[in-house]
Amino acid sequence: MRHSLRIVALLVLMALAGGAYWYFVKQGGTVAGLTATLKAAGGAPAQGGASGAPGGGAKPPGGMPPMPVEAATVRVGTVDRTVTAVGSLLSNESVMIRPEIAGRISEIAFKEGQRVTKGSVLVRLDDAIARATLAQAQASIAFSRAELSRADQLVRQNTGPLRSREQAAAKLLADEAAVQLAKAQLDKQVITAPFDGVLGLRKVSVGDFVQAGKDIVNLEDIDTLKLDFRVPEMFLPAVKVGQTVKVAVDAFGGRSFDGTVYAIDPLVDVNGRALAVRARVPNPDGNLRPGLFARVGLTLVTVPNAVLIPEQAIVAFGKDQFVFKVVDGKVSQTKVTLGERRNAEVEITQGLAAGDVVVTAGQLKIRDGAPVAVVPNKPAGS
Question: Is the pTM of this model over 0.85?
Answer without folding.
Answer: no
